[in-house]
Write a structure and sequence with these properties.
- The chain has one domain.
- It is 57% helix and 7% strand.
- The chain is built from nine helices and six strands; from the N terminus they run H-H-E-E-H-E-H-E-H-E-H-H-H-H-E.
C-alpha cells in the first residue's frame, strides 16, 4: 500500500527585495519631482523635497504600480506563478525605468496570455488618463520663442540632411524640452485648453508630466512583438506563426520609425530586437480565442495606436 505523506505548504518569503526597490523608487522619483518643481532653486530640504516632489512621484508610481498589479492579479487568477513587481530606481531622469514582474511558470492558454498581457496596460491607462486631465487643468500656458528646443535633428535621417546641407546639428541649449503628443494627450489638451494661440505652449504640471510618462510606458509596453505586453496580446490573437511574422514586421517598423521619426524609437528598436527578441513561448494549450476575447485583443492593440508618440522627446 502506498504511503501518504503530507508535506507542509511552503511559507511565503517576505518580499524584502520588492519592498526595498519600491522604497528606493519612491525616493528617486521624489527627488526627480523636486528637481522639476519651482522649489528646486531654493535648495533641498526634507520639507521642500516632499512638497515639490510628491505630486510627480505619487502620480508616476501610482500608474506604474497599477500597471504591474494588473499583470499580477490576472496571473494569480489564472494560477500562474509570478512575483510581485520589481521597481527599477535610477538616480537620473524621471527617477525610475519602470517596473517588471517575473513569470515563473508556463502560461496555461492563449486566453490567459491575453488577459495577463492586457491587464497591465489597461489598468495603467485607466489611472493615467484622469491624472493627465487633472494635470493639464492645473498647468499654465506661456508664449515661447520659435525653435525653443535645442536640437534641430529629431532622427538619423534629419542628421544626415543637416550634414549634407551644412547646417548645425544642435542649436543653443535653451533648457526647454518639448514632449510629443499621442492621440490621447492631444485630445486631452484640446479638451482642457482648446486651440492654443500661435507661439504658445502648455507648461505641464508635474502630475500631468507623470501621466504623460505613464502613457509613454504604456505605449512602449504595447509594442506588439516578442514578450512585451503587446507581444502577449498579438500571440493570443494570431497564434504562434502569425505572432512571429507580426513581430518581425513590427520590429522593421520600429527601425523605420527610429531612422525617420525619432532617435527614441531607434533606441527602443535596439533594446527590443537584441535583448527582448521577437519570439514568444507557446502556452500549454494553444487553442483560439473566443470572439469576445478577440475583440479585447483588438481593443488592446488599438490602445497602442492611440498612445503612440511619433517623436516622444525633442532635446
Amino acid at each position: 500500500m502506498d504511503e501518504l505523506v503530507l508535506r507542509p505548504r511552503p511559507r511565503s518569503r517576505f518580499p524584502a527585495a520588492n519592498l526595498a526597490l519600491f522604497l528606493a523608487t519612491l525616493a528617486t522619483t521624489l527627488w526627480a519631482g523636486f528637481t522639476l518643481s519651482p522649489l528646486a532653486p531654493l535648495g533641498p530640504t526634507l520639507g521642500r523635497v516632499l512638497e515639490g516632489g510628491l505630486p510627480f512621484a505619487g502620480a508616476l508610481v501610482a500608474i506604474l504600480f497599477t500597471h504591474e498589479m494588473g499583470h499580477y492579479v490576472l496571473a494569480r487568477r489564472h494560477r500562474v506563478d509570478t512575483t510581485l513587481p520589481y521597481f527599477i530606481p535610477v538616480p537620473f531622469g524621471a527617477g525610475t525605468l519602470g517596473a517588471v514582474i517575473r513569470i515563473r511558470s508556463a502560461l496555461p492558454s492563449r486566453k490567459a496570455t491575453l488577459e495577463i498581457g492586457a491587464a497591465g496596460p489597461i489598468a495603467g491607462f485607466l489611472v493615467a488618463v484622469p491624472l493627465l486631465v487633472w494635470g493639464l487643468a492645473h498647468s499654465e500656458v506661456h508664449q515661447v520663442a520659435a525653435g525653443v528646443a535645442g536640437s534641430t535633428v529629431a532622427s538619423p535621417l534629419d542628421a544626415l540632411r543637416a550634414w549634407m546641407d551644412g547646417r548645425e546639428l544642435f542649436g543653443p541649449d535653451t533648457g526647454v524640452r518639448v514632449y510629443g503628443d499621442s492621440l490621447v494627450t492631444w485630445a486631452a489638451q484640446r479638451l482642457v485648453w482648446g486651440t492654443l494661440p500661435a507661439g504658445h505652449e502648455v507648461f505641464v504640471h508635474p502630475v500631468g508630466f507623470a501621466a504623460w510618462l505613464g502613457l509613454l510606458v504604456t505605449s512602449l509596453n504595447l509594442v506588439p512583438m516578442g514578450q512585451l505586453d503587446g507581444g502577449h496580446v498579438l500571440y493570443a490573437l494570431l497564434g504562434r506563426r502569425g505572432a512571429r511574422v507580426g513581430s518581425e514586421v513590427v520590429s522593421a517598423g520600429l527601425l523605420v520609425a527610429g531612422l525617420t521619426l525619432s532617435w527614441n524609437w531607434l533606441f527602443w528598436w535596439l533594446l527590443t530586437r537584441f535583448l527582448i527578441g521577437a519570439r514568444h513561448p507557446p502556452p500549454l494549450r494553444d487553442e483560439p480565442l473566443s470572439p469576445g476575447r478577440r475583440a479585447l485583443a483588438v481593443a488592446t492593440l488599438l490602445l497602442f495606436v492611440v498612445t503612440f508618440v511619433p517623436v516622444p522627446i525633442s532635446l
